[in-house]
């Protein structure tokens, strides 16, 4: 038995990458829609068993500049109403929050970059998706915006060391994560080339951080492959 997952890719430099590989290993078929390359988004989730929305350079509020953001928000609302298992990653997490009535703003504490501890809250241990992974782990962050107010009914599941929302459950089977479980050092290096981080602002030497990410590859596989596997289990059993 397999499940068909609609993956929305906002830019070529943030594909499903490792998370997609792990979903396929767990029995999912990925239908990757690339609106940045001219693909027309489905108007509904018919024929799909789950929704995965990736990250991107844009803001969750760039509807006027990015023609497909408004339709993506509608797909989030459809998934929320219909109980379709859904995961938003970074921008996907932020777009889900806005679509359902929350708020996203530029982080007043500055950009989040690099390996950061995931600060699980007590609610995560009982969560259907995160319960199996709510133990000490690190995730790769690369974002300027954050969710500043969760939508009505949402539950915060993890909080970054500085206090930013890191993970949330938006509905019975809808989640968002601010970190990137999908990426590795070569992909992060491309992001660093396109979106330089100033050490004077962040205190971060990007080459040192890239080396830390490369050295943590096995750790990150062990941390986030189980998240993909659990999401696949939820999809396959719906």
CATH domain class: Alpha Beta
Cα radius of gyration in angstroms: 16 Å
From the spread of the alpha carbons, the general shape counts as globular
Task: Write the element-wise H/E pattern from the N-terminal end onward.
Answer: EHEEHEHEEEEEEEHHHH
* Largest sheet report: 7 strands, mixed
The chain-level structural class is: alpha/beta
> Total domains, how many?
1
The span between the termini is: 12 Å
Oligomer: single chain
Order of strands across the biggest sheet?
2-1-3-4-11-10-9
What's the name of the CATH homologous superfamily? Class I glutamine amidotransferase (GATase) domain
CATH architecture, by name, is: 3-Layer(aba) Sandwich
List keywords for this structure.
Rossmann fold; two-stranded antiparallel ribbon; 238 residues; 24% strand; alpha/beta
Overall description:
This protein has 238 residues and is an alpha/beta fold. It has one domain (3-237): 3-Layer(aba) Sandwich (Rossmann fold), CATH 3.40.50.880. It is 32% helix and 24% strand. It contains 7 helices and 11 strands. Strands 2-1-3-4-11-10-9 form a 7-stranded mixed sheet, sandwiched between helices. A hairpin with a 2-residue loop joins strand 10 (165-171) and strand 11. The chain is globular, with a radius of gyration of 16 Å. It starts with a strand and ends with a helix. The relative contact order is 0.18. The mean pLDDT is 95.
């Amino acid at each position: 038995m397999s499940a068909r997952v609609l993956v929305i890719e906002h830019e070529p430099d943030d594909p499903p990458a490792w998370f997609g590989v792990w979903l396929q290993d767990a029995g999912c078929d990925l239908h990757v829609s690339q609106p940045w390359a001219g693909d027309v988004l489905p108007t509904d989730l018919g024929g799909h068993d789950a929704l995965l929305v990736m990250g991107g350079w844009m803001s969750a509020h760039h509807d006027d500049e990015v023609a497909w953001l408004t339709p993506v928000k509608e797909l989030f609302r459809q998934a929320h109403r219909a109980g379709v298992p859904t995961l938003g990653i970074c921008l996907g997490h932020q777009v889900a929050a806005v679509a359902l009535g929350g708020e996203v703003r530029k982080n007043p504490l500055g950009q989040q970059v690099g390996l950061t501890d995931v600060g699980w809250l007590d609610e995560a241990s009982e969560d259907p998706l995160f319960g199996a992974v709510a133990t000490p782990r690190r995730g790769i962050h690369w974002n300027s915006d954050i969710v500043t107010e969760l939508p009505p009914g949402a539950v915060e599941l993890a909080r970054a060391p500085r206090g930013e929302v890191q993970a949330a459950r938006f509905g019975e089977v809808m989640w968002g994560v601010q970190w990137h479980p999908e990426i590795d050092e070569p992909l992060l290096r491309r992001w660093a080339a396109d979106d330089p981080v100033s050490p004077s602002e962040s205190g971060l030497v990007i080459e040192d951080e890239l080396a830390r990410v490369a050295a943590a590859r096995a750790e990150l596989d062990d941390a986030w492959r189980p998240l993909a596997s659990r999401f696949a289990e939820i999809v396959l059993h719906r």
